Amino acid sequence: MQEIHIVDIRKLTEIIKSKYGYDFTNYAISSLKRRIIRILELYKFKSVDALGKRISEDPVFFEEFISEITVNVTEMFRDPSFWRILRDKILPNILLNNKRIRIWHAGCSSGEEVYSMAILLKEMGILENSKIIATDIDDQILKRAKSGVYTVKNMELNEKNYVRFRGENELNRYFKIKNGLTYMDKSLVKDVSYRKQDLVKGGVFNKFDIVLCRNVMIYFNQNLQNDVLKKLHESIFKYGYLAIGSKESLIWSEIANKFIVANNEEKIYKKIKE
Amino acid sequence: MIFQGLHTKFKAIVIGGSAGSFQGITRILSRVPEDFPLPIILCLHRLKHVRNGFMEALSIKSIKNVVEPYDKESIKPGKVYLAPANYHLSIELGHYFSLSTEEMVNNSRPSIDITLETGAYTYKNKLIGILLSGANKDGAMGMKNIKDSGGFTVVQDPRECMINTMPSAALEMAEIDYTLSIDNIIELFFEIHKLYK
């Protein structure tokens, strides 16, 4: 593995910012560094400078770069206990005062979490009353999310998670295997709106009853986390919910006092103040 | 036992381990005194989908409390941290942790190499790396990073390990200051403790 310096990373993020408007300046440095080294090796660039030159000259390559620099490792029903709490406590609570549930998956990656949600809603009998918006910074991954095609190997893990979640059926009721790939039942997500959106640069575009942004902000530094959390706070109705990753925390953010803990173990927060 | 190369400038200890390391690590933690001054950062291979139980199991025998850090949590002197299940644990320049769900490294998440490498980058020659029993080569590269940065390196004696692939790989790849039994690793902790008093 080659060693790269922070000044090289800074130069690269400047090129990207001025040419394309994406701002990676406040991404968490050690994972960003590993992603850049990975890209250097994958495309056999000799240096970060060479990568920067290619990016500034080639917008098509830049799209590929975005796909590779973002982390897209995800699972269906990751943390099964989270999904149980959602089904048994949080969503019923939202339904006390609402007929419809408006849901935002912020940073939806390859879409496994969206399918998990759709399956959960279907099993609760409320999929038709729900509106899901799923966003990601990466066009390529949004295409994959929409296609609902996953590897058999990943689906084995998803099935294990689903069993731990204690779903109503077998997960294989929701997909078919063809030519060594699994194809999700697309009717589950027919009303889902998939959109390209950058949490860093993008503004507030709608309001939701629950926002899921799990293991997305871990790639940001604390300042950027704070900025993004302010936007997420604005995007949630009063008494709506925010779900973050099980090892993330609101404690350090400015909006911490505008939420109360709905479930500490699963890191689900309820907005109590505008 | 007399250890060469110890000083009072160390800022942290990172311990990596995998299969067969649980007993060793609990023996160490059962002896490390309450007022041991350095943070101890544990990166141990564990079941990816079992979030609870491991930290508690380590805490039972440990004198100090063992915690799984949150993303961006500051590293405090004297605390014992454990890499959470299914996340890589990085040590950042401002002396705090960050977590990530990146691809597995050496078939592992958490990967010991990632924690050791980022630790070496952050703490330079002020880091002690200890690698225990294990069944794969994760951690060997990280031990080399620590040595190359001027840090202090220790592996558990392969003859004592339940599975010695991990320390043996480190001995092959990096210059290791000491190859020690668990008893001697405990002595090393006592020596460091004395130095900082």
Description:
The complex is a heterodimer of chains A (274) and B (197). Chain A is an alpha/beta fold and 274 residues long. Chain A has helices at 6-20, 29-42, 48-57, 59-69, 80-97, 112-124, 139-147, 152-165, 222-234; strands at 101-106, 130-136, 149-151, 175-178, 181-184, 193-196, 208-213, 236-244, 259-263, 268-271. Chain A has two domains: 6-69, no CATH class; 80-146 and 189-271, Rossmann fold, CATH 3.40.50.150. Helices cover 43% and strands 19% of the residues of chain A. In chain A, β1, α6 (112-124) and β2 form a beta-alpha-beta unit. The radius of gyration of chain A is 19 Å and the shape is globular. Chain B has 197 residues and is an alpha/beta fold. Chain B has a single domain (12-195), classed as Methylesterase CheB, C-terminal domain (Rossmann fold), CATH 3.40.50. In chain B, 30% of the residues lie in helices and 20% in strands. Chain B has six helices and nine strands. In chain B, the strands form two sheets. Chain B has a seven-stranded parallel beta sheet, sandwiched between helices. A two-stranded antiparallel ribbon of chain B has the order 5-6. At the A-B interface, α2 and α8 of A face β5, β6 and α3 of B.
Report the helical percentage of chain B. 25-40%
- Strand proportion of chain A: 15-25%
State the shape of chain B: globular
Please report the number of helical segments of chain A: 9
Instruction: Assign an overall shape of chain A.
Output: globular
Helix amount of chain A: 40-55%
Could you name the CATH homologous superfamily of chain B?
Answer: Methylesterase CheB, C-terminal domain
Task: Tell me the distance between the termini of chain A.
Answer: 47 Å
Topology:
The complex is a heterodimer of chains A (274) and B (197).
Chain A: H1 6-20, H2 29-42, H3 48-57, H4 59-69, H5 80-97, E1 101-106, H6 112-124, E2 130-136, H7 139-147, E3 149-151, H8 152-165, E4 175-178, E5 181-184, E6 193-196, E7 208-213, H9 222-234, E8 236-244, E9 259-263, E10 268-271
Parallel strand pairs in A: 1-2, 1-7, 2-6, 7-8
Antiparallel strand pairs in A: 3-5, 4-5, 8-10, 9-10
Chain B: E1 12-17, H1 22-29, E2 40-44, H2 54-61, E3 66-67, E4 80-82, E5 88-92, E6 96-100, H3 112-123, E7 127-131, H4 140-148, E8 152-156, H5 165-173, E9 178-180, H6 182-195
Parallel strand pairs in B: 1-2, 1-7, 2-4, 3-4, 7-8, 8-9
Antiparallel strand pairs in B: 5-6
Helix pairs in contact in B: 1-6, 3-4, 4-5
